Amino acid sequence: MLWLGGQSERVFDFRHHFWADSGLTFCNFTNEWWPFSKCGLILIIMSEEKTKQISREDFLKSLQKSTEVACLIVMQGPNKGTKYLMDQPEITIGRTAASIICLPDQSISRTHAKMRIAGEKAFIEDLGSSNGTFVNKVKLAAQVETEIVTGDMLQFGEIILKYLPSGEVEAQFLTDITKQAHVDAMTEAFNKGYLKQYGEAEFKKISALGEAWSVIFIDLDHFKKVNDTYGHAAGDYVLKEFAAIIRSSLRSKDLFARYGGEEFVLLLGGTGQEVAVGIADRLRKRVETHSFEFEGKRIPVTSSAGVCEYKPGVKSFDELLKKADGALYQAKQTGRNRVCTAE
Questions:
Q1: Does 6 score more than 60 pLDDT?
Q2: Sheet of 303-309, strands arranged across
Q3: Among 75, 171, 285, 316, which has the highest number of CB atoms less than 10 A from its own CB?
Q4: Contact 1, 25 (CB under 8 A)
C-alpha cells in the first residue's frame, strides 16, 4: 500500500504492477499509470501483523540492497522471468550443461557467447554461434567484445534476456512478478508449472554431467479426513504448517514444490538415494511429532514419501517423477507414515 503525500493524501493499492521501461507504476485505485517518483512517495508497507512507514529513499535503498549483483532476466523463451545472477567475472552462455548460463534450446549453440564483468561495466562476445548474438536487434560480429548497458536486450537464438546492472530496482520488481507466477500462494512452495520447467532444465544438465540427483514425492496421509473432520480452514492450516516445516529444512541446492492438493515434491541437487532417504525420513518424523493445533484442537498428521535417484537410462524428468510417485504409492499401500524407494 502506498500513501501519497502532497495534494491527494490518500492510500492506494499498487499491487506490484510496474512498467520498468517507462518508469511508471500502476495504481489499481485510479486505474492510471503514474510516474514512480510522483509526489515524492512516502511508502507504507502493510501486512496482517503491523504497518510500517518508510521514506521513498529508504524503500529504494532496500530494493537496491537486494539487487547488488548484475543479472540477466529471460524476457522471451522457455522459463520466462528466470533471473541469472552475473556473480562471476566471466560467464559462458550456451546449450550444454557446462555453460554457466545453460539455455537448453535448439536455437542456442553449444557454446554460444560469453559475458565479462569489469567493475561497473559489462561486455558480451559472440563465440561463433550458428544463429548469432544480437544486442537490441543488432547482430554482433563474432569474436568481437561489445559493451552493454542498462536495459539492453540480448538475443541468443530465439531467447531474449534483459541486462540489468547491480543496484537496478527494476530487477527486484521483475523478480516479484516472476515469484507471483511461479509460487503457490497458500504454501509459498513453487507451483507445478515451475517444478516442470526447473526439473526439465536440471534433468538435461544432470544427465549430461552424470551428477547425483534425487526426487522425493511426499503426500499427507488421510488428508481428506482432516478436511471432513475439522473443516477446510483447518485443512488449509495443515498445508501451510506442513510447507513451513519442509521449507525450514531446505538446503540452498534443493527445490520444494506443491504438485497438487496435498502432494509435494522435493528435488535434491547433488544427492544420492541413501542420503535422500535419510532426508525424507527426517522430514517424516518432523511432521509426525509436530504439534498441528487449529482453534484449540490438536490434529494428528503424518506423511508418506517415495524416493527416486536419477540413474543412467532414465530418459526424462517426467519418468523420474513417475518412479518417485510409484514409490510413494508403495509407501501408502504398505501402511503409510513411511518412506519407500523406487526400484
A1: no
A2: 254-260, 263-269, 213-220, 303-309, 339-341
A3: 171
A4: no
Amino acid at 313: G
What distance in Å separates the CA atoms of residue 12 and residue 80, rounded to the nearest whole number?
29
Q: How far apart are CA 216 and CA 219, in angstroms?
A: 10
Which range (77-81, 178-182, 187-191, 256-260) has the least confidence? 178-182
pLDDT tens by residue, 31-60: 444 444 433 443 433 334 444 455 555 544
In this structure, the chain runs to a length of 343
HEC readout, 156-196: ECCEEEEEECCCCHHHHHHHHHHHHHHECCCCCCECHHHHH
Neighbours of 191 (CB within 10 A): 17
The enclosing H or E element of 135 equals: strand 133-135
Residue 51, sorted as left (phi over 0), alpha (psi -120 to 50) or beta, turns out to be beta
Closest by Cα among 211, 259, 236 to 97? 211
**pLDDT on residue 43:** 40
CA dist 145 and 121 (Å) reads 12
Contacts of 223 (CB under 8 A, 6+ apart): 235, 238, 261, 262
Q: Quick one: angle between helices 192-209 and 169-182, nearest 10?
A: 100
What are the residue numbers of the active site? 262
Q: Classify residue 181 by burial, with Cβ atoms within 10 Å: 0-12, 13-18, 19+.
A: exposed
Query: E strands along 173-316, which residues?
Result: 213-220, 254-260, 263-269, 293-294, 297-298, 303-309
Report the percentage of the chain scoring pLDDT > 90. 52
> What is the C-alpha to C-alpha distance for residues 275 and 147, in angstroms, rounded to an integer?
45
